[in-house]
Specification:
Elements lengths: L3 H15 L8 E8 L10 E6 L10 E3 L1 E3 L2 E3 L2 E5 L2 E4 L8 E7 L2 E8 L7 E3 L3 E7 L6 E7 L4 E3 L5 E7 L2 E8 L11 E7 L2 E7 L5
Length: 204
C-alpha cells in the first residue's frame, strides 16, 4: 500500500513528465542596405556565417524562371548544396550556362523544365547567361550558411531563427561583377532581434 506522501511524489513526478520545457527563443537580424549616396539598394545577396563552428546546411531547392527573355529573379542567394531548377516559360529556346569557378554548367537549348536541377555545391559567385540572348543575365551567390537572403526594393532583408553569437555578415552585389567577384564581409553580433545598417559602395 502506498502512503499519502509517496502518492503525492508520484503525482508531481508525472506532472513534471508532461510539462514541456520552454522553447529556445529564436533571434533575428534585419539588415538595411544603402549605397554610397544613401539610396536603398536592392539585390544584395547576404548571409550570416558563424565565427565559431560550422552550421548545418538545409536541404533546399530554388527556382530561376526564364520569362520574356529575362531571368527572374536577377539575384538568388543559396546555401551550399542547394539545387536550382531553370524552367523556361518562353516560347523560344534558351541555352543557360555559366563559366564561373564556383559553378560551371550548361543547359543546352531547351523548352519547359530540365529533368534534373543544377546543384550548387561550392561557395562563391556564379554569373549566368543565355548563349542565344546576350542581354540575359542572372546571379547566384552560394554561401556556407543556412541563413541567406536578398535585399528587397526597400533595401531590407530579415534573417530569422539565428542563434545568438558572433557572425560575419557576408554580402555581394552585381555592381561588383567583372572584378574578382569576391564576397565582402563585416562582423555582426546577434543578441535578440538585432538591426544592422550596411553601406555597399561601388567596389568591395
Amino acid at each position: 500500500m502506498i502512503d499519502l506522501a509517496a502518492r503525492r511524489g508520484m503525482i508531481l513526478a508525472a506532472i513534471g513528465c508532461i510539462v514541456p520545457a520552454p522553447a529556445a527563443l529564436a533571434d533575428s537580424l534585419t539588415v538595411r542596405v544603402v549605397d554610397e549616396h544613401g539610396a536603398a539598394l536592392q539585390d544584395v545577396a547576404m548571409a550570416l556565417k558563424p565565427l565559431v563552428g560550422v552550421p548545418a546546411m538545409r536541404v533546399a531547392e530554388f527556382e530561376i524562371v526564364q520569362r520574356d527573355k529575362r531571368f527572374i529573379p536577377l539575384m538568388t542567394a543559396v546555401p551550399t548544396g542547394a539545387s536550382i531548377r531553370f524552367p523556361n516559360h518562353d516560347t523560344v529556346r534558351h541555352h543557360v550556362y555559366s563559366f564561373s569557378p564556383a559553378k560551371t554548367f550548361e543547359l543546352k537549348l531547351y523548352l519547359g523544365t530540365p529533368a534534373a536541377p543544377v546543384v550548387f555545391d561550392k561557395p562563391g559567385v556564379v554569373v549566368m547567361g543565355c548563349n542565344i540572348h546576350d542581354h540575359m543575365v542572372a546571379y547566384v551567390v552560394v554561401f556556407d550558411s543556412p541563413w541567406v537572403g536578398v535585399s528587397d526594393e526597400a533595401g531590407e532583408l530579415r534573417l530569422q531563427g539565428v542563434p545568438a553569437g558572433d557572425y560575419r555578415l557576408e554580402y555581394w552585389h552585381p555592381r561588383w561583377v567583372g572584378a574578382d567577384n569576391s564576397v565582402a564581409g563585416t562582423p555582426v553580433r546577434i543578441d535578440g532581434d538585432a538591426r544592422f545598417a550596411l553601406v555597399v559602395g561601388a567596389q568591395p
